[in-house]
Specification:
Elements (H helix, E strand, L loop, with lengths): L9 H25 L4 H11 L1 H16 L2 H7 L1
């Protein structure tokens, strides 16, 4: 049996993009405040926005960190 994937509607895409931004902001704030992302914060984000969105946001923030993104932000 084939599984056909439907194209997300515009409202679903906007909701996902907003979730991405909120997740990233929360993760960055947690890292700046505590030096890491708390388990409780990730659990909250995964419950509210879904595992895929929260994990992807965490991956992006961690990737920026390895490229020196936070160091350049703190110097300005």
């Amino acid at each position: 049996m084939r599984i056909f994937h439907r194209k997300p509607t515009e409202s679903e895409t906007i909701k996902e993009n907003n979730g991405d931004l909120v997740c990233e902001e929360s993760i960055i704030t947690d890292k700046e405040r505590f030096g890491r992302v708390r388990k409780s914060m990730m659990k909250y984000l995964r419950d509210k926005y879904g595992s895929e969105i929260a994990n992807r946001a965490l991956w992006r923030v961690n990737r920026r960190r390895t490229e020196g993104y936070f160091r350049s932000m703190s110097q300005t």
